[in-house]
Amino acid sequence: MDCVVNCSAYANGRKADSVEIDDIGEVLKRPDTFVWIGLQDPHNDMMKRIQGVFGLHDLAIEDAHRAHQRPKIEAYGEVLFIVLRTAQMNGQNIDHGETHFFLGKNFIVSIRHGSSLSYVDVRARCESTPHLLQKGPAFALYSVMDFIVDQYFPVIAGLEERVAELEDKIFEETSTRETTQLIYLLKRQLLEVKRSVSPLIDICNKLMRFDLRLIDEETRPYFRDVYDHAVRINEMVDNARELLSAALEANLSLISISQNDVSKRFAGWAAIIGVPTMIAGIYGMNFDSMPELQWSYGYPIVLGLIIGMCGLMFYFFRRSGWL
Amino acid sequence: MDCVVNCSAYANGRKADSVEIDDIGEVLKRPDTFVWIGLQDPHNDMMKRIQGVFGLHDLAIEDAHRAHQRPKIEAYGEVLFIVLRTAQMNGQNIDHGETHFFLGKNFIVSIRHGSSLSYVDVRARCESTPHLLQKGPAFALYSVMDFIVDQYFPVIAGLEERVAELEDKIFEETSTRETTQLIYLLKRQLLEVKRSVSPLIDICNKLMRFDLRLIDEETRPYFRDVYDHAVRINEMVDNARELLSAALEANLSLISISQNDVSKRFAGWAAIIGVPTMIAGIYGMNFDSMPELQWSYGYPIVLGLIIGMCGLMFYFFRRSGWL
Amino acid sequence: MDCVVNCSAYANGRKADSVEIDDIGEVLKRPDTFVWIGLQDPHNDMMKRIQGVFGLHDLAIEDAHRAHQRPKIEAYGEVLFIVLRTAQMNGQNIDHGETHFFLGKNFIVSIRHGSSLSYVDVRARCESTPHLLQKGPAFALYSVMDFIVDQYFPVIAGLEERVAELEDKIFEETSTRETTQLIYLLKRQLLEVKRSVSPLIDICNKLMRFDLRLIDEETRPYFRDVYDHAVRINEMVDNARELLSAALEANLSLISISQNDVSKRFAGWAAIIGVPTMIAGIYGMNFDSMPELQWSYGYPIVLGLIIGMCGLMFYFFRRSGWL
Amino acid sequence: MDCVVNCSAYANGRKADSVEIDDIGEVLKRPDTFVWIGLQDPHNDMMKRIQGVFGLHDLAIEDAHRAHQRPKIEAYGEVLFIVLRTAQMNGQNIDHGETHFFLGKNFIVSIRHGSSLSYVDVRARCESTPHLLQKGPAFALYSVMDFIVDQYFPVIAGLEERVAELEDKIFEETSTRETTQLIYLLKRQLLEVKRSVSPLIDICNKLMRFDLRLIDEETRPYFRDVYDHAVRINEMVDNARELLSAALEANLSLISISQNDVSKRFAGWAAIIGVPTMIAGIYGMNFDSMPELQWSYGYPIVLGLIIGMCGLMFYFFRRSGWL
Amino acid sequence: MDCVVNCSAYANGRKADSVEIDDIGEVLKRPDTFVWIGLQDPHNDMMKRIQGVFGLHDLAIEDAHRAHQRPKIEAYGEVLFIVLRTAQMNGQNIDHGETHFFLGKNFIVSIRHGSSLSYVDVRARCESTPHLLQKGPAFALYSVMDFIVDQYFPVIAGLEERVAELEDKIFEETSTRETTQLIYLLKRQLLEVKRSVSPLIDICNKLMRFDLRLIDEETRPYFRDVYDHAVRINEMVDNARELLSAALEANLSLISISQNDVSKRFAGWAAIIGVPTMIAGIYGMNFDSMPELQWSYGYPIVLGLIIGMCGLMFYFFRRSGWL
Q1: Helix axes C152-172, C177-209, angle to 10 degrees
Q2: Which of A76, A120, A218, B264 is the right S-S partner for A57, CB 3.0 to 4.6 Å?
Q3: Closest Cβ opposite residue D256 in set C171, C256, C278
Q4: Residues 6+ apart with CB under 8 A from C114
Q5: Cα dihedral value E286, E292, E293, E295, nearest 10
Q6: Are C58 and B139 in contact (CB under 8 A)?
Q7: Chain B CB within 8 Å of residue A124 CB
Q8: Could you tell me if B189 lies within 8 Å of chain A, comparing CB atoms?
Q9: d(CA C103, CA C75)
Q10: A264 neighbourhood in chain B, CB within 8 Å
């Protein structure tokens, strides 16, 4: 499988040519032209060629080749190296992937690792607005970042929905081992999303402030927009986490209350069963002279007494909420 | 429905004219004049016209058109874009809305989304103090912000009252599932209010410090006043949240204590019922020679013994607080 | 009731005159002279007159007239506006009040709201050290602030004492609903004191650093002293809060342990009552041929067996700490 | 009792003379000479004399005379005023004391309050390294500070040991009220040590950076060394606190598990006692025609049945861990 | 045992000579040459010789000789002193060691204390890339630091695996004392790793920014790489800690739920045993006239009634999840 998804030159914001990796050197000499390369899970050789063409730093290439980095931004001389994590809902699970970028004065390389949506649509959208794309590779970077960050909104909406379902479960049903496990799993997922999202804020901040010719004044508001979305996603995650903590506490309270209810109900019924047993026991004693036993109405009277006492107890327990 | 609520020009702090959106260009050429436009849930076309007249940035227009932003302040060149969230009590619930502002050198546009009070009264009050309104559109911004922030005081007073009610419930009644649910719901509401209010502090801070000609030295103390209110609301929310946490902990303790009480009471009564059952059982045994059974006073003595022991147990349990 | 408690002019640190509000303008023209006015719950007119004489800002006057501000310091041009909260023990409760200050180059106005001690003594003490008072109104401000802050020490000592009492209650007696309520109330009081005290640190910090002619180099160590006391009070409050949290956790543990004890004791006695009942039941069966029943010593043997088993159980339960 | 422990002049790092307080003025005129005074719980007069000799600030003298300050560093003109808290193990308790310092260009005064080790040894050690002591009074300050900070290591080692003992108690024995009380007491002690130690970091930091002639470039690494120790002690305290929190949580879990065990064991034995009682009850009924009662092997069969069922129940409960 | 593991001179990145400690002075005079010394648990004399040769500070030598420092970086004039902690899995335990460095313009000394892997391989790898090693001793420092930091990845992977095992234990089995103890032990280990790793971030940060000739522009990206790894390890530790906290909470909930289950099951069976006992008791009463007793089908009817009621109760308890 070829790992080069797309490699095109753009002049004044318009697609000029699909170029081969080895011809890039030539293309970059043209004025107002930049190259946008999209790679997917590239093999070692390809990374070496890319490094050769753009003169990238060893350490960055090493990082870009391995996945499982944390989101970060690093400047190597005139080149920015950026790592982002992507996320997508996949049923009840979240699939995480990674995308790395090399951003230079007249080139951008994006490298996708693991499961993530294709950036074909993003590129097409960019090509349809040449007046924006002519701002250079920084705008291409913005477009992909914006796309990646916006992918988090449905993910978090999904998690929020599950928190809401959890609330219903907690307050409407009895707490089960499954509820507790669900809380735990949601916590773990939120933790993972948090780790992917929170460094984004810092990355966007640096992109907005970098004292570099790479990102010009006009492009910065676009990165501020990505920053704003990242902050919002971050807040939504924090919010969901706080709700989850509150739900956990409520769950614990309700388990205790339910334990109380069980104890009360048990105590009530134990009394209602225990009192007749006691009375019957007394009239089961074998004393020679127990006058009540000879009375003709002794039995029905005692039976009535027992039933009456049980009824009374039932009434009082019910009234005080024990039954 | 027309989405333009009001569109007027002000010269030297006095209302000069109601103007049409398309005539604004003319009006803005006059010296010492600014335009104040109030929109409500504007449709797409209107936003385009507003954008055209004032030369606003694409990204800001996009944000302003969609609701569900987080409170923020952003500078696009000479224009400030501000997003605030509004809140109002509606029975037990809190209705949240949003208001966006574009503030320029000689114009201010306010855009209401969702449920929020009308700003007609604010505008009227401003018009009644021309010496203040002549400070320019920044003063109009202050007036509406002050109005929005002051709306939070009754909201929080309402929440504080419900926390106080909760305290009474916790300490005076038995803990029920409803108490726990109420704590949870209050927590969620406070969380939401917190999210609306806490960015306000940062926004006011920036308005007080912005190195811009938009807000002059004289108007800044007014924004500091809004800042002060925002800080106060924020503190009230934090306070209510801490009280709620303390209430939750107290609630948990009380549930456990109540569980203890149930156990103790149950144990006490179980003993009072169990001891007679045991004694009766013994005198119900069928041994041929059980001398007590032949005694003429055997039965009353045993009965007396049973009653005496029960009385004694009752007395001791009561004294040690188990019954 | 007149709301002017005292209004005097000081020249070179010595009291020159009691002056009328309306004569202040004249007095302030003298060199090395400042005016110190003390107001209590002033009415609207008085505030207007004060505003007129010293040229104070509308917003500050508005704040100073309403109580229930948060402690803060604000500069309006050359005038500082300071809000402090006061506290006093009143039996088991804490009475909170407010004092506002306007500090100018040659005047200081203090405005008391709600319950707080009179500043007559402070003024007298200042007047007895003219070499200090001649440092100007900033020294008068220091004196009152020092007095206010020192009022917190007995308040916190009182709260610490109640925390210590609580400790004794928790570890020496059984946990009751009252203990839990007491923890909650102490938490609430500490929260309130915290809110009053913690902004003091920031206020003193600003007073020590303010780039203003109002507070000269020589007076600053005095504000650092107040700062130091504020930090100390703050730490004492935090300390008490941490102790309270630890006490709460200990309380919860002890409730659970006590629940364990109840369960164990109940289980032990249940066994001691249940075993005789079971044995008696067996010898109460009506089988025709139960040889034990005919034995002459059957009854005493079974009785002995029962008593022996109960004794044994009692011994074992006691040894393992269940009874 | 005289409160002057030692008062000596040092020239070029060597002890020149024991001097009287009143002769200090003379001594300080000599070049390369500094005075090191050690006081213990000084009375008011002595403080006044010290103040007179070195020209110290009123506020500092006031603080130095009263104990119960928080650790701090304050500059009064050319003089530094430093407050440190000392700690020593005393059996299970920790004795806290205070030492205050005045550090000037050519003098250092140390004032001990409450229980703390004598600084005689420290002085002796300093005198044995004249090449270091000639760096001036700052080195003397370093020596005493180092001594004070190093006193905390055994204190914390003692607390860590008690935390380790607590671990053993929690995991090997049953939780008792004493365990809970021990956790609470350790928490309180750690809190107190924390309060004494954590300001040290800030104090050392300031000593390392102070833009003053008091501490020269060469002496700073020594204060960095004290800083390093303070940071380490602080970390050890934090570590012990986190361990304690974890131990508390483990304790709570174990109490609940133990409660579970009690309930299960009780339930098991209740069944083993309850079933025979039920069967015996049935054969104790007085129906005229109960064929089993006439069977010659009725009694042994039922007895066998009862014993068999109890055995079976015992086996199953044991296997499922309830007994 | 000799404590010098290796002592070599490097010229232009290539190994020139193994040198004796005492000849180092000579070697360092050659241009483009640096010396790399590896020591292990050095004795006092060796440290003195090293100090003499490179002119190191007393305090640093003192620290370097004692183990049990916290990770730190300190500049003594032109020499950096660095302390790192190492970690290795050893079955279920983690072995911690320490490595200290002295980094000068043309020398590096590494001192290993306690259990840690040998740096022979690191040195070999460095020698195989002379173009990198010629950057000087800073690159040698980088190589060893990188090696030390990378040792943490398997340690944390091991801890993460144990957290995952714990999850399975918690959600699939019943909570036992062992689970709780395991949580506690994992917490303690994570706490220890955290203490070793978190200061690394600060150390790398300082190495990247130090305003020194020791680390040139070209070598800094390498330290940023170590920084990046340290941040990642730190995040992994924090993540594992948060998961552990969540697991602990889940564990507590599950213990309570399991307690609830025990109570419910007990209550159910108690009812199923108690009701027959009660009925049998009633028909065991000795009244003269109890018509049911004379009925020929009295016994089977009552027996049927008892069995029917028990069956019914069993059905209802099962349906409501109590059994």
Answers
A1: 150
A2: A76
A3: C256
A4: C41, C67, C95, C96, C97, C98
A5: 160
A6: no
A7: no
A8: no
A9: 10
A10: 262
Contact A81, A74 (CB under 8 A): yes
| A288 inside 8 A of chain B by CB | yes
CB pair distance less than 8 Å for A254 and B180? yes
How far apart CA A188 and CA A93 sit, in angstroms, is 11
Q: pLDDT tens digits, residue range C200-233?
A: 999 998 888 766 677 888 888 899 999 999 999 9
Report the alpha-carbon distance of residue C285 to residue E139 in Å, rounded: 94
Instruction: Render pLDDT for D102-122 as a digit per residue (tens, 0 to 9).
Output: 999 889 999 998 877 788 889
Residue B289 clears pLDDT 60, i.e. is over it: yes
D160 — alpha (psi -120 to 50), left (phi > 0) or beta?
alpha
Whole-number CA gyration radius for chain E: 35
What is d(CA D152, CA D117) in angstroms, rounded to the nearest whole number?
Answer: 12
Nearest CA-CA distance, residue C32 and chain B, Å: 30
Instruction: Please give the Cα distance from E207 to D201 (Å, whole number).
Output: 22
Token pair for residue D226? Answer: 């004290």
Question: Are the C-beta atoms of B108 and B36 separated by less than 8 Å?
Answer: yes
- Count the alpha carbons within 13 Å of A178 in the hemisphere toward its beta carbon: 6
Measured between beta carbons, which residues in chain C are less than 8 angstroms from residue D248? Answer: 249, 253
E293 touching D, CB under 8 A? yes
pLDDT tens for each residue of D174-194 = 778 889 999 999 999 999 999
* Structure letter (DSSP) for residue E70: P
Q: Say what the pLDDT of residue D212 is.
A: 61
For residues E157 and E198, is the Cβ–Cβ distance under 8 A? no
| Helix or strand (DSSP H, E) at A236 | helix A220-282
Q: Which two tokens stand for residue A162?
A: 């599950």
Would you call E180 and D250 a contact, using CB atoms and an 8 Å cutoff? yes
B252–chain A nearest CA distance, Å: 6
Tens of pLDDT along B185-209?
999 999 999 999 999 999 998 888 7
Q: Lowest-pLDDT range, A11-15, D172-176, D194-198, E41-45?
A: D172-176
Instruction: Show the 3-state SS of D158-196.
Output: HHHHHHHHHHHHHHHCCCCHHHHHHHHHHHHHHHHHHHH
Strands C79-90 and A79-90 turn out to be unpaired
Closest alpha carbon within chain A to E168 = A181
Interface partners of chain A (CB pairs < 8 Å, 3 or more) are B, E
Its pTM stands at 0.88
Best of D241, D249, D264 to disrupt the E interface (most E CBs within 10 Å) is: D249
**How far C232 CA sits from the closest chain B CA (Å)?**
22
Cβ neighbours of residue A26 under 8 Å, at least 6 residues apart?
none
3-state secondary structure of B7: strand
Contact by Cβ (8 Å): E103, E54: no
Q: What is the ipTM of this complex?
A: 0.85
Does the beta carbon of C77 lie under 8 angstroms from any beta carbon of chain B?
no
Query: In angstroms, rounded to a whole number, what is the distance separating the alpha carbons of residues B120 and B142?
Result: 15
Work out the pLDDT band at D211, boundaries 50, 70, 90.
low
Report DSSP state, residue C180. H
Q: Mean pLDDT for chain A?
A: 89
**Residues 48..67 of C with a Cβ closer than 8 Å to B: which?**
57, 59, 63
Measured CA to CA, the distance from residue A160 to residue A244 in angstroms comes to: 10
Band (pLDDT 50/70/90 cuts) for residue E212 is low
User: Chains with 3 or more CB pairs closer than 8 angstroms to C?
Assistant: B, D
Spans of chain C below 50 pLDDT: 1
Distance from CA of C37 to the nearest CA of D (A): 27
